[in-house]
Amino acid sequence: MKPVKIGFLGFGTVGQGAAIVLARNALEISRRAGREISVKSAVVRDINRTREAGLEGVILTTDPLDVVNDPDIDVVVEVVGGDEPAKTLLLQAIANGKHVVTANKALIARFGNELFEAAREHNVSVAFEAAVAGGIPVIKSIREGLAGNKIQWLAGIINGTSNYILTEMRDKGRDFADVLQEAQDLGYAEADPTFDVEGIDAAHKLTILASIAFGVPLKFDAVYIEGISHITREDTAYAEELGYRIKHLGLAVDTGDGLELRVHPTLIPERRLIANVDGVMNAVLVQADAVGPTLYYGAGAGAEPTGSSIVADIMDAARVASAAVDNRVPHLAFQHDALNDVRVLSSSEFSTSYYLRILVDDKPGVMADISRILGDEDISIEAIIQKEPTADSARVPIILLTRKMVEGAMESAIAKIEALGSVEGTVTRIRVESLG
Q: N or C: which end of the chain has fewer CB within 10 A?
């Protein structure tokens, strides 16, 4: 059969990682795909810059249209990131009848519906395994391996930077700002870390996971997003004392009345496997009706781990090149005309348990006032820790774990607690999930 020719839009760390995997495992890949796959050209900023060894035969260009409009290229791989020019270039590649592979989670989360519709019109595919959790084949697992299941919920540690920061804070008692600076120095976090530590990157990935899990259009704008910058080393220590660990979690839950799509810090029982995923590693836990819980763990970033997912998508494109759209695995797991536009719940409708840290005057009656407010909102207390006052402060932290309730009740209770004269500042609230 005619060899499959690949063109890369972007040839940095991830692009070269994928090309290296293709070159090193060429024989194995051709045996699996049924045809030879090779890289023809790549778009770069600087043609004279030194590339990785083994990629000398790749034609380099600074003009993306040299790749997108090349009739000899069958699959265009986009690893430049961002919305534009990536979106315009991929739409042009699709219009030219080329299959598309992308690692761009923001592009898929925000514009995937448009890209998929264009791909159907031109009888090509858009593959995006590398857009979620790097080298972990979680997209294929949910979309194909769990195709016979009704998925009830999924929870993921899907941003390595945030996970690294929380791990260091817990294990070494370090402050958020110090660990963030170290993560930037090590290259785990960008100079502007907002997308990572404020949950936007994880929300992009959760959007994609939720769509393939529940058969709904991509709904990034409906995701509730909360970052980790307000988490303190004291919170990580108190969580440990209570038998929990704090993780920056993405959760998608089918409640029966709608979907919960949320990214936020979460206390997880330390006995759960996912609570023990540390450092920059990623993991996704999926609960389905037939198989029960399944956990997918591995490297969420890196040249060759992400390249591994890109290569798998390229191989899929090579296999289905001659198949009609209706004979391929659907982009979002469900046939496009069977997607349901299910309502996404607002944050006040979430149902979960809570960790509360409250700084109060060290005097009688304070706990009674707090308990009364919680009782008025029908909120039950699961556990309580009250610390001794320090030598330089007359205030003490009270840590509470509550039972499960609707978030609107908790919002009302917190507002009343913060209004007490004996309470200093704001109440720290972190959601708790058993994931059982």
A: C
What is the amino acid identity at position 20? I
Q: Classify residue 422 by its DSSP letter.
A: T
What phi, psi does 71 have (nearest 5°)?
-65, -15
**Are 128 and 147 in the same domain?**
no
Highest averaged pLDDT of the listed ranges 66-70, 191-195, 419-423: 66-70
pLDDT-derived band of residue 337, with 50, 70 and 90 as boundaries? Answer: confident
Distance CA 420, CA 395 (A): 14
Same domain membership, residue 250 and residue 307: no
In this prediction, residue 51 carries a pLDDT of 72
Active-site residue (options: 5, 40, 105, 205): 205
Question: In whole angstroms, what is the distance from residue 128 CA to residue 78 CA?
Answer: 10
Q: Are residues 268 and 130 in the same domain?
A: no
Where does 54-104 have alpha helices with state H?
65-68, 86-95
Is 205 an annotated catalytic residue?
yes
Same domain, yes or no: 64 and 93: yes
Of 141, 177, 93, the closest CA to residue 312 belongs to: 141
One domain, residues 368 and 405 = yes
Answer whether residue 166 shows pLDDT above 70. Answer: yes
Task: Give the pLDDT confidence of 359-390 residue by residue, as tens digits.
Answer: 998 888 899 999 999 999 999 999 998 877 76
Same domain, 332 and 355: no
- Asked whether residue 216 is assigned to any structural domain, the reply reads yes
Show contacts of 371-376: CB within 8 Å, 24+ apart.
373/413, 373/416, 373/417, 373/420, 374/400, 374/402, 374/413, 376/413, 376/416
For residue 220, how many other CB atoms are within 10 A of its CB? 22
**CATH number for the domain harbouring residue 389:** 3.30.70.260
The answer to whether the beta carbons of residues 386 and 329 sit under 8 Å apart is no
* Cβ-contact 377, 255 below 8 angstroms: no
Distances (CA, A) of 132 to 50, 310, 417: 29, 11, 39
Give the CATH number for residue 71.
Answer: 3.40.50.720
- Of residues 1 and 243, the one with the higher pLDDT is 243
Nearest to 220 by CA among 230, 209, 229: 209
Asked if 264 and 368 sit in the same domain, the reply is no
Number of domains the chain contains: 3
Domain that holds residue 417: 349-432
The answer to whether residue 344 is domain-embedded is: no
Band (pLDDT 50/70/90 cuts) for residue 168 is very high
Whole-structure pTM value: 0.93
